[in-house]
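Quick one: structure tokens for this chain, please?
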Amino acid sequence: MLGTLWGDKSNSAVFDNSKLRSVVPEFDAVVAFADGIRETVEWFDANPRRQEIDHEANVFWDHLASIYDDALASAAMVRQPL
């Protein structure tokens, strides 16, 4: 699950840049929400392949979510008093 931060993740996520700012205090990585969303949509619109549904990836993520849900349910049962 490796990839780049360019494209859909470059403006739609929040990253901790405190280490960088401790070395370069004048660094400011602020992007206005409206600008970030506009750039993200433009990135998707620029290539029709980015607009296709990846059915194989959906199966993978559904399976991963199911494992997570099962683990949470299992942990909740353990925490309940006997």
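The chain has a mean pLDDT of 84.
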